[in-house]
Design a protein that fits this description.
Layout (H helix, E strand, L loop, with lengths): L1 E4 L1 E3 L4 H9 L5 E3 L8 H4 L2 H8 L3 E6 L14 E4 H10 L4 E6 L28 E5 L4 E5 L6 E8 L2 E6 L39 E7 L4 E4 L4 E6 L3 E8 L4 H24 L1 H21 L1
Parallel strand pairs: 1-11, 2-3
Antiparallel strand pairs: 3-12, 4-5, 4-6, 6-7, 7-14, 8-13, 9-12, 9-14, 10-11, 10-13
Helix pairs in contact: 3-4, 5-6
Length: 289
């Protein structure tokens, strides 16, 4: 796999951002976007525990989804405060995915500023928190609603790998899903190119996201994230600015996810293996050409 370092800028004018990244659909890390946010210093493990520690949250482990796992199905549930205690004590390969903490503590929306000058269509009812213990992994996927993402890291560091959606055949995208059949765990050290030879031709972007930095990830981008340290991040989502992009997001949510979940219920084992066979055939075709 060939990778390029994600561009980094401390600040950027709205005009330059739209021309160079937003309209060009290219990722960038803005290192100074959150520097004046209260969240930069205020959001700590103890702070989160004090405001929503009793809330039950779904946890996800590092295992890939099995044949009978529905889309976004959590592996277990636990009190948020108990989970944070686990994370603080040491490495734990468990993460929280799409936690809308703001529903339970709406006052903390005052701790950051929406970057309305950079994009339109922000889903302001749905800022999402992502928490992971050191060693936890968000496996390669792209967001099913096809939204643009502004992902700000507040605690810890994570290694990020991004690929444009057009790279899908090279990374073994499975039909009716937003997932790859290939594993990217420790991709920077070794990839299984014997089982997945098309990975050799994939082209991606990579970086290590540090505290306070904001990653702009255009809609539809594949992403794989590994928590190098226990960490907290927040994603602000913005609908695609084109009608085609919005319709594509709707199609993914209603059509693809619905079909995938239906087949998991009807014929889980057959569907599990069928998706992987189709992904392999598609990769073989791009290798030929």
């Amino acid at each position: 796999m060939h990778t390029t370092t994600i561009d980094r800028v401390e600040s950027i004018t709205p005009e330059d951002f739209r021309k160079r990244y937003y309209e060009a659909r290219k990722p960038v890390i803005i290192t100074g976007l959150s520097k004046d946010w209260a969240a930069s210093a205020k959001w700590t493990w103890n702070y989160f525990k004090s405001i929503v520690g009793n809330q039950m949250v779904g946890l996800y482990n590092n295992e890939r989804a099995g044949a009978r796992t529905l889309v976004n199905g959590a592996d277990t549930y636990i009190r948020f405060g108990d989970y944070l205690d686990m994370v603080k004590e040491g490495p734990v390969q468990l993460r929280i995915f799409l936690f809308n903490i703001f529903q339970h503590a709406p006052q903390i929306v005052n701790d950051f500023t929406w970057p309305d000058e950079l994009a339109t269509g922000f889903l302001k009812k749905y800022p999402m928190l992502f928490v992971g213990g050191a060693g936890s992994v968000a496996h390669m996927h792209y967001d099913i609603d096809m939204s643009h993402i502004f992902h700000t890291q507040f605690i810890g560091r994570k290694r990020v790998l991004l690929l444009e959606n057009k790279q899908s055949p090279y990374i073994y995208r499975m039909p009716c899903t937003v997932e790859s059949a290939a594993s990217f765990v420790n991709w920077h050290e070794q990839l299984d190119t014997e089982r997945f030879p098309a990975l050799k031709r994939a082209q991606g972007y990579t970086a290590i996201l540090e505290h306070g930095e904001t990653l702009f990830m255009p809609g539809g981008y594949w992403h794989h994230m590994e928590y190098m340290e226990s960490g907290v991040a927040m994603s602000l989502r913005a609908l695609d600015h084109t009608l085609a992009g919005k319709l594509n997001g709707l199609y993914h949510i209603v059509g693809l996810r619905g079909m995938n979940n239906l087949m998991i219920k009807i014929a889980p084992e057959w569907w599990y293996h069928y998706k992987r066979r189709v992904a392999a055939r598609r990769a073989e075709r791009v290798l030929v050409y």
